Amino acid sequence: MKFIVDIIKGIFVGIANVIPGVSGGTMAVSFGIYDKILSSVSNLFKDFKKSFRTLFPIAIGMIVGVIGFTFIIGWLLKNQPLCTSLAFTGLIVGGVPMILKSLKDGWVKDKKKSLFVNIILFLLFLAIAVGMSLMNGDENSGVLLTADLKTIIVVFFIGIIAAATMIIPGVSGSLVLMILGYYFGILSAVKDFISALKNFDMKGMISQGLILAPFAIGCLVGVFFIAKLVEWLFNHFASATFSAILGLIFASPIAIFYKVQQEYNMFDSSIPQIIFGIIIFVVCTYLTILMGKLEGSTDELEKQE
């Protein structure tokens, strides 16, 4: 049961990483798996078996979410932009109580703490996230990537940056890719690779693989180092770190609605679409709360065993 639940959570995290303005890190926090991912990545070489067992179902879900949603994200945002935005906002809002609990626990745990510093960090990171969401993507975002040496090297470092931002709650890795000008190029490479795989087109698979492989390796490097940094911050400045994360998360709905409205004009939605969107928002909020409870209950069972 826990394996399946973790795959489902991974799917939502993967989907979130595809949509500009939506944070995969926020989704991981909302579903209660963020700390587990950080700890497992940081201790991958120290306790490989346990870390692999934790990360494997989440990674499967993320791959399914990224690949599956790459093909339908355009249709959803074009035809149901309001419902799609409200769905992800609900998933984020449902995780806020869990984050507030973590903030409270961090405040109790911290020996050195300052309410003033926490408030400043909250407002600062809220402002940073909102500011990032107001930035437009590079005009070269639609350029297709080619498998030459320069592109391979650049894409590797882009992967490091993307992974570092993807793992930080409230920061959208796909939005950062868009700002840097590589979002549509990477998305197109994923689509072309899957299409080549389905058609057994070896030349196409190699061509797109030479773009995606260095990007994936860069992502792994970025995730490993940023996980180490964030875990250190949790261990030494828990409440301050959670205050900053809370600021980033509060900015996420603003980023989602701004980017989607900018691209797809979702406020032209009909009354039935608005009603359906509100229903989806409530359902997704409840789903996140339920997932958080399932995470807590499965963790308790693991401790008892």
Q: If you compute it from the alpha carbons, what radius of gyration comes out, rounded to the nearest whole angstrom?
A: 19 Å
Strand tally is 0
What percentage of amino acids are in beta strands?
under 5%
Structural class: mainly alpha
- Sequence stretches where pLDDT stays below 50 over 5 or more residues: 137-142, 298-305
Helical proportion, percent range = over 70%
For the largest beta-sheet, the strand count, sense and barrel status come to:
none
Give the overall shape, derived from the CA principal axes.
Answer: globular
Total number of helices: 13
- The SSE order reads HHHHHHHHHHHHH
Cα separation of the termini: 15 Å
Mean pLDDT: 80
Features:
305 residues, mainly alpha, disordered C terminus
Outline:
It is built from 13 helices and no strands. It has helices spanning 2-18, 24-30, 34-42, 48-79, 81-93, 96-109, 115-133, 149-166, 173-180, 183-198, 202-236, 238-264, 271-304. The radius of gyration is 19 Å and the shape is globular.
Describe this structure in words.
The chain is mostly helical. The chain has 13 helices and no strands. It has helices at 2-18, 24-30, 34-42, 48-79, 81-93, 96-109, 115-133, 149-166, 173-180, 183-198, 202-236, 238-264, 271-304. Helix 1 crosses helix 4 (48-79) and helix 5 (81-93) packs antiparallel against helix 12. The chain is globular and about 60 Å long. It starts with a helix and ends with a helix.
Lay out the secondary structure.
Elements: H1 2-18, H2 24-30, H3 34-42, H4 48-79, H5 81-93, H6 96-109, H7 115-133, H8 149-166, H9 173-180, H10 183-198, H11 202-236, H12 238-264, H13 271-304
Helix pairs in contact: 1-2, 1-4, 3-4, 3-11, 4-5, 5-12, 5-13, 6-12, 7-12, 8-9, 8-11, 10-11, 11-12
